[in-house]
Design brief:
Structural class: mainly alpha
Keywords: Coiled coil, Membrane, Mitochondrion, Transmembrane, Transmembrane helix
Helix content: over 70%
Order of helices and strands: HHHHH
Distance between the termini: 110 Å
Radius of gyration: 40 Å
Largest sheet: none
Shape: elongated
Main location: mitochondrion
Subcellular location: Mitochondrion membrane
Number of helices: 5
Protein name: Respiratory supercomplex factor 1, mitochondrial
């Protein structure tokens, strides 16, 4: 069973529109033991540091031990909260339990579809590029034909002028 997000009820656009403070508030509402654990850890570290600065090393050591315990409790809250949310989603029928193989297979299929879409886009870009090159070649071909016609006309005029020059010379 995969771990659900607390934002499963929101679509992607709604998630992107939420501000950071709203996201944090939503997470705190979903699992209130995590922020409590974080605050407890911060308080124990602060007390331990102040005791150590004041020279009371034995008490500081006890507070550092309490810090480790509060971090462990926070980690436990994260794990239990996630599994609770997952179980709740499963019980509501929102999510069917899936094996890791099924999840990996789905990811591979999604990746294959994405690659296929990218390949299709690349082929379309290449096709468009080939069409543009053909149009350019046709345009240049027409220009060359027009230039050939003009060249033929000039050549014909030149021959006529040569005939006139030759006929005037012979007279």
């Amino acid at each position: 069973m995969s771990m659900p997000s607390s934002f499963d009820h929101l679509d992607h656009d709604q998630k992107m529109k939420m501000e950071y403070t709203e996201l944090v508030a939503q997470k705190c509402r979903d699992n209130p033991f995590v922020p409590i654990g974080i605050l407890t850890t911060i308080v124990t570290v602060t007390i331990a540091v102040t005791k150590m600065k004041s020279g009371n090393k034995a008490t500081a050591n006890k507070w550092f031990t309490a810090r480790v315990a509060s971090q462990g409790a926070t980690l436990l809250a994260v794990v239990l909260g996630g599994s609770y949310e997952g179980r709740k989603a499963y019980m509501k029928g929102q999510e069917a339990p899936r094996s890791i193989d099924e999840i990996q297979q789905e990811k591979l299929q999604n990746k294959a579809k994405e690659r296929e879409n990218l390949w299709i886009q690349e082929l379309e870009r290449r096709d468009e590029s080939i069409k543009k090159r053909k149009q350019f070649a046709e345009l240049k071909k027409k220009e060359m034909e027009k230039m050939k016609e003009e060249s033929d006309k000039l050549e014909a005029e030149l021959k006529e002028l040569e005939k006139k020059v030759n006929s005037t010379k012979s007279k």
